[in-house]
Design goal:
Elements: E1 2-4, E2 10-12, H1 15-21, H2 27-43, H3 53-73, H4 90-103, H5 107-121, H6 127-139, H7 143-156, H8 162-181, H9 185-197, H10 203-219, H11 223-239, H12 243-259, H13 263-280, H14 283-300, H15 303-320, H16 323-339, H17 343-359, H18 363-379, H19 415-424
Antiparallel strand pairs: 1-2
Helix pairs in contact: 2-3, 3-4, 4-5, 5-6, 6-7, 6-8, 7-8, 8-9, 9-10, 10-11, 10-12, 11-12, 12-13, 12-14, 13-14, 14-15, 14-16, 15-16, 16-17, 16-18, 17-18
Length: 441
């Protein structure tokens, strides 16, 4: 029935054997045992080698919740032994577990943990955990709930001290994220501008707001403004010695440079961002650098590399629950596949990406996904103009040929390259930078 555990001691071979072993133990006694285990683990030092870190928090939260659940089922008195676990700060344990889940790019797990913490706290949820819960809801597409929770948090929190100001600014970032996700771009921009212009807020929040505003400018075609904000974010993170902020700003700079065909600048930004994220052991940052590099390789015409990098990033984007990031990399993968003659996969990915961009009300993504579908239609000798009824892209004509044979057309003639140039290259030169920047930027 038992086998040695990797953490020492023994564990049941199967759940059925555990259930059979405890079948003779009454629920009241079982509640008391869970309570004793929770109290024992809670009394351990945070760095106790026997049980520490995430394992300790998981152990305390699980056994305390089991004790209270059984006590409720048996209607035990408030003074009973199992009820004493209410004094254990399980919310803090669940909050630490949620933080670890965020760091591991598991927003769904973080949301579940914070929902459990909220159920325990009832109306006494700490503001920091409430803010984390709203962030988790945005990351798991619960936009309306996240918006309502963040609005309530902002209204209920005063900015009398640094902590209160940080909570309010964090809530505004979430409000902007939720508004952006449902297509309310003006409302999102207003929330982020409030953070960027706030006095006394956390510098890293100002950096985040600048990057978000820059990406909004990028997606609405204001490339000069976007580039300016990205450089401002990078300079601010440099002055604050915020290395994660530097990495994310560099990743944004790479997007902007790529869309103008400045691949040398994009490569340099990505190299610096990758180095920072590796040093920080930031898996999320490293993964996003991979996704951005796929976009760079696509516009360079290095299609096999673009497809390979997109395939590497796809599982991460799916796990993260980032709908825009997932749709963008699906689009990259679709176009690379189309140009390499893999039309079935290209059409499938392009359709999925188009649906996602339509749900997000993202004109940038919709137009690019329609270009990709037009490439597929052209090579199948179909009528590109019949696609969706809204595509206004022009596709180069070519004789019908075998769709399974990769073409040798020059990357410079790529419809996506032409689309990027037509969509993003300004008619006049970019204005001088208002923000000083290192020469390579």
């Amino acid at each position: 029935m038992l086998r040695p555990s990797n953490r020492g001691g023994y564990t049941f071979v199967t759940a059925f054997m555990r259930q059979a072993a405890y079948a003779g133990v009454g629920k009241t006694e079982l509640a008391a045992r869970h309570a004793r285990l929770a109290r024992w683990a809670d009394a351990l030092a945070p760095d106790d080698p026997e049980l520490a870190g995430i394992e300790r928090d998981t152990f305390v939260a699980r056994h305390a919740e089991e004790a209270l659940s059984l006590a409720d089922a048996m209607r035990l008195a408030a003074s009973s032994d199992p009820r004493t676990v209410v004094s254990i700060d399980r919310r803090a344990a669940l909050g630490r577990l949620a933080t670890a889940a965020f760091a591991d790019s598991q927003p769904a797990q973080a949301a579940a943990l914070l929902d459990r913490a909220a159920a325990l706290a009832r109306d006494e949820m700490p503001a920091e955990l409430t803010l984390a819960r709203a962030r988790a809801w945005v990351r798991t597409s619960r936009y309306a709930e996240a918006l309502a929770l963040a609005e309530r948090l902002r209204q209920d929190t005063t900015a009398d001290d640094a902590d209160g100001q940080a909570i309010r600014m964090g809530a505004l970032l979430v409000i902007g994220d939720a508004e952006r996700a449902v297509g309310h771009l003006e409302e999102a921009a207003h929330a982020w501008r409030t953070v960027a212009n706030a006095c006394g807020g956390p510098p890293e929040y100002e950096t985040e707001a600048l990057r978000r505003l820059g990406m909004l400018d990028y997606l609405t075609g204001h490339l000069a403004d976007a580039d300016e904000r990205f450089v401002q974010a990078y300079q601010l993170s440099l002055s604050q010695h915020d290395r994660p902020g530097q990495g994310w700003a560099l990743q944004n700079i790479a997007w902007s440079a790529t869309s103008r065909g400045d691949f040398d600048r994009a490569e340099m930004a990505l190299d610096r961002a990758a180095t920072l994220f590796v040093d920080l052991r930031d898996v999320a940052g490293q993964s996003w650098v991979t996704g951005t590099e796929a976009f760079v390789r696509l516009l360079q015409g290095r299609l096999r590399q673009a497809g390979a990098l997109a395939a590497e990033f796809l599982p991460y984007a799916e796990r993260l629950g980032d709908e825009w990031g997932l749709a963008a990399v699906q689009m990259v993968d679709a176009y690379a596949a189309a140009e390499l003659g893999e039309l079935a996969r290209a059409d499938r990915q392009a359709r999925v990406a188009l649906r996602s961009f339509e749900q997000l009300d993202d004109a940038w993504g919709r137009s690019l996904a329609l270009v990709v579908r037009g490439v597929v239609a052209r090579d199948r000798c179909a009528d590109p103009a019949a696609l969706a009824g809204t595509a206004r892209s022009r596709f180069s004509s070519k004789p019908c040929g075998s769709p399974s044979r990769p073409r040798t057309r020059s990357p410079s003639a790529s419809p996506v390259r032409c689309w990027a140039t037509a969509s993003w290259t300004p008619a006049t030169p970019l204005p001088p930078r208002r923000t000083p920047a290192p020469p390579w930027i």
